[in-house]
UniProtKB/TrEMBL annotation:
PANTHER family from the UniProt entry: UPF0332 PROTEIN TM_1000
Protein family (similarity comment): Belongs to the UPF0332 family.
Organism lineage string: unclassified sequences, metagenomes, ecological metagenomes
Protein name: HEPN domain-containing protein
Domain named HEPN: residues: 7-87
Pfam (any one): HEPN
Alphabetized InterPro entries for the sequence: HEPN_dom, UPF0332_toxin
Amino acid sequence: MVDHQGYYAQFHALRALVFAGGYREKSHSCLRYAIEALYVDEGLLPASILEDFNFAMRTREGADYGCVYSEKDARDVVASAGVVLDQIRAMLE
């Protein structure tokens, strides 16, 4: 079981946050660095949000390019997506 939707839910939520700040990212990894510099390092987001996104990104990349995936990882990505979405929604409201 691979859940790309959990990763992309996090990706687009974090992307919306970067856009709301007047910035644009050029790639998936650039988004990670933008979130770190603009929000985590500034104390606006907990580091756990970035850790969840990093895990989701690695899980998706492993499934796409390395054929490495597990049901547990997919469930973890979906669960972390809910946390990330709640945090970003609260910041954008």
